[in-house]
Protein 1
Amino acid sequence: MQLIARGVGHAYGAMPALQGIDLTVQDREIVAIIGPSGCGKSTLLGILGGILRPTAGTVAIEGAPPADSLNPFTYIFQDFALLPWRTVARNIELVLHRHRLGRAGTARIVADVLRRTGLEQFADAYPRQLSGGMRQRVGIARALAVRPAVLLMDEPLSALDAQTRELLLEDFLDLWLRAPMAAVYVTHNLAEALRVADRVAVMSRRPGRLREIVPIVIPQAERTRPERQGEIARLHETLWGLIKDEARIAEREVAGHA
Amino acid sequence: MLDRVDQAARPALAGRPMPFRGGGFEITPRRWLAPGAFALVLAAWQLGSSLGLINPMFLPSPLAILAALRDAALSGALWINLSASLVRFGGGWVLGTAAGLLVGLVMGIFSAARAIGLAGISALFPIPKIALLPLLILWLGIGETSKVTTIALGVFFPMAVATYSAIDAVPRNLIRMAQSFNLGWSAIVARIILPGALPGILAGMRITVSVGLTLLAAAEMIGARYGIGAFILAAGNLMLPDQLLAGVVVLSLLGLGLAWLLGRAERVLLRWR
């Protein structure tokens, strides 16, 4: 299955946020989207998953999602978006309820995703009792519960501290390597993009356009190996070169006076 | 190596201690201060009365009020009046709360209902509801219906406003999350909007309880045979200040009891906070 954006554009009122985005997300591939703040990365992600209506262009789904997928296009949010009045397990049940899997079927899925994300002991905890990293694990568990074909990740680690980010990123990659699925990974962190992505889409400052798509051919499993670090550093250089000037100008822009 | 680092970190001479400058404007709980102050005021009041410094015709002593309360309880007058008040308050509050919740919910969800409802509420909310009692008596008669309706009207508006404001305060990202998982409309209302609005709704109920009690007393003073308001009014007419204040104490206890009940409900329903 492929997710194809054709000429996608978006404007908030008179302010253009995105222009002429053409992007195809292949089966089982991770596309990272990077760009300076305010470049419309999150807007693009919202449009790709159908929770924002583009003001120009279309998003097409080519091919059928896997038959067992309950929610083919599933988000993982920067702010976790957990219901504070539901326990961890009940937060996951929330998204399974409409699929009428029965009590046993639901419980089996919940137990499975809690185990895969290392949350078994936290099933009955409320979100406020968890650290940020654990909360995002719940966000990931909830996404996995509906067996997505495409994961749409909106700066999933930005709200976390550096160590937690590192741990969660490795755990996410482990999960992904075991059961690869397509993912769009929005981030402003070059190192994160270089760690997870098969291709990195670099966006310009507002109005966001795709400047370049940089393929990362090193397999994800090898990217932490010492002998690969030279290559990674060169790619980092390339990406930074692409967004540095844009980021500098974007930083000086005042919202609403572009 | 480690040792040398330690040596460097240790000051050669004992210096002046750093003066503490933090603390902020911290409010810390003082458990016994409130009951203590309350007891002190009561004791001073009783002392003033016992020494003859306070004219009992204007302000009877706490013990005299307590005695009047006991007499009313023993004669059965307290129960007749209290039960009449409770029925009125209960009926009016439940009706007004239910209607306010419903209208607030609709206003919180539908833009058209918000536009119309807001205009209606802005126009009608400022009217002192007790001023409508004579009109309601004209329409509904002097019986219970007019008093219950007055209380219900008074409760309705703040409840509707509290409900739609509480719905506005439900984080939009949660609703967007639910939509991204394809939850249906009714599931979003039942599982996201209502539980998310519950803290605000319960806070609104604290306000409507006191509004309802105010209207209860006022309505009973305008036209009722029984009721705490009528009891207080009659005591005033008969120049029985101890009985009058006994009625006021009952109203105050009623308010405290209802607030306590709401507190319990909050503790149970909002355990997750």
Protein 2
Amino acid sequence: MTTAQDIIDQLLNVLPEELNVSIPSAETDLLSEEILDSVALVNLMFLIERHWGVKVTPEKMDLEHFRTVRSMAAFIETES
Amino acid sequence: MSTLIQALITPPMAPLLHESITRQAENRPEAVAVVDGYVRITYGELEQRSNRMARALVNAGCDKGNRVCIAIPKSIDAIVAVAGVLKAGCIYTPLDMSSPPARLARIVKACEPSVVLASESALKTLHSALDLFDREFVIGLVDGEALPDWSGVGSFSAGEIEAQPDSALEVSSRPEDVAYILFTSGSTGQPKGVPISHDNVEAFVAWANRYFAVSTEDRLSGHTALHFDLSVYDLFGTFYAGAELHLVPATASLLPTGIADFIRDSRITQWFSVPSVLNFMFKFGVVERGDFPDLKRVLWCGEVLPTPALVYLMQQLPHVQFTNLYGPTETTIASSYFTVPEAPASANDDVPIGLACDGESLHLLDESLQPVDAGVTADLYIGGIGLSRGYWRDEERTAEAFITPLGDSGHGLPERLYRTGDLAFMDAEGLTHFVGRTDAQIKSRGYRIELGEIEAALAGIDELVESATVAVASDGFEGKVICCAYATQAQNGFGPQEITARLRDQLPEYMIPARWESYDALPRNPAGKIDRVALRERFESQVQSSS
């Protein structure tokens, strides 16, 4: 079974290459640090759908889900 | 009907941009001019604050025609700064503070400002670029307390600006004086400065506000950053009409739902942006049918809006008028327009760039500057009232792009023409259609990018033996994807991450390639040049298979 920690590890692994960004830690605020812009966020949503089969519909489009790698993992775990 | 009457009785336009604010302040001082989240400023307050700013600039030694850089995030403070600079008879140049210090330094060096107006949040980046400047200027801090203590740099504070008298300053600007200089990507790696005068802008705003019947009842969106010329219409389209400008918060732009919520909650009546924002809302289907009941007009400019996005928006928003605007920075905001009469029948239909705005003209000419027949694709030239007087202190590139057709004036060509570098054709109905570029300039997310500027930065990386960039279309909303093919010295472990880190010292984020391919040696065509066609095909199949 995939745990939140597994998802965190996978995200830390794939995001730098897929989104062309560097991520200091799972707790880094990627939005206020301006590491993710709107294009990266969109690519992130596509990536989450591809890797984990979680579709980010407009109702679920809340910035808080994408603020940190940890919050992304929690979102993916809840939705998958 | 009332807006039509209002538009008809609007008095003649003020010849200087900032006079539009003064006029509104005299007639309707309590009317709201700009809204930024929970903060708003009336025309009366904008008039007074910009008068104080103008006085502070003159006190700091600004003379007529001096440049003032603006390093303030888009906000009411930034708009006060723009108005204050113009009232001081000076020229404003907004700085993109997300640019790396090396690029900022090139721009500041080129325009030689007397003053840089900055917010506290910009000081760190400015300081790291400071070593790269070779000319002194004064820093004017518009917020915060901590005046920078940098050797050789004078400064004045927000408190000193506020302490100025709020009466108008006597400055004798003329309509032909330059109002702003914007820097665009240049193929040699050196950004090009485009100076635009008060009368250039006034002509476009006069046309646009008449055509769109903008009135005091309107609420315009302020989405575009100040270093991008669509923002000039956001500001002065609003001020000439006495309307309200609603600044789109940065966080709202991050998600398509954020933009939709903003349009809805701010009750925007006229939206103006690059197409990627509209495409963004389409891709995620965030617009309900009949959504945005207050919205009357959607305008876009800067690149092609994909037809499926337009069809979607026209279906969801049957009460809204959709207008495509076209034109480079060099001819001021936009030079042609096309209001889409009905949703295109097929996703393959293109949207024309249409007809020239009043006072401007479009010309399709062959190599000897002879007009071509309808249906023939040729180089697109623009003439008329929007043309810049030429690139900032760059006669060579001015002569290349701004031409004077000699002799044979029988074709009725204007005295000066700007060669856009775009290819286009005119259809049987006299509407012009955009086809593509003649050179290596691309548009990505509305940004105008010369691949040459990226290649110039790549050429500065010693670990690379050779490299080339190409742009390929993507299915995503961002337009073109920048792809880089490179070859390194044997097995030195130097890859995309390392190259990206180096490029970030030189280039803004939107110029960083998104796709990479390593080669032992780049493919060559029979002429011995790097085979960009082959590279493009390689990347195209990659980009397609991943989306």
